[in-house]
Design a protein that fits this description.
Layout lengths: L1 E4 L2 E4 L2 H8 L10 E5 L2 E4 H9 L8 H11 L2 E4 L7 H9 L12
Antiparallel strand pairs: 1-2, 3-4, 3-5
């Protein structure tokens, strides 16, 4: 299947992706990922291995479109379980360093 990743055309096949990823150790998943041979790989890692391009040159969405068209299953990593306080801090941001009481 012909696909374009980072403005370069590639002819990818499912068997070619399987062969390229054989023996590659999956990196920790933090965002979007694809399941290949019962292992979960970050999309950016797969894109780098399959295309030989630097990860900064393409988006995860470009690789995801190609992987889905080839028949692989793509996912988004679930949000970590956070306490309500941690969720609020993530949304609002950490408070600026406030001066100590009595200083100011």
């Amino acid at each position: 299947m012909r696909c374009v990743i980072a403005r370069f055309p590639f002819d990818l096949t499912k068997s070619g992706v399987l062969e390229s990823m054989r023996g590659v150790k999956p990196e920790p998943v933090t965002g979007e990922y694809v399941t290949i041979s019962r292992r979960q790989f970050p999309l950016k890692q797969v894109g780098q291995v399959v295309t030989g391009q630097d990860r900064r040159d393409f988006s995860a969405a470009e690789v995801q479109r190609a992987m889905v068209r080839l028949g692989f299953t793509c996912h988004t990593a679930p949000e970590p379980d956070l306490s309500p306080l941690q969720r609020a801090s993530a949304v609002l941001g950490a408070p600026e360093d406030a001066p100590e009481p009595g200083q100011g």
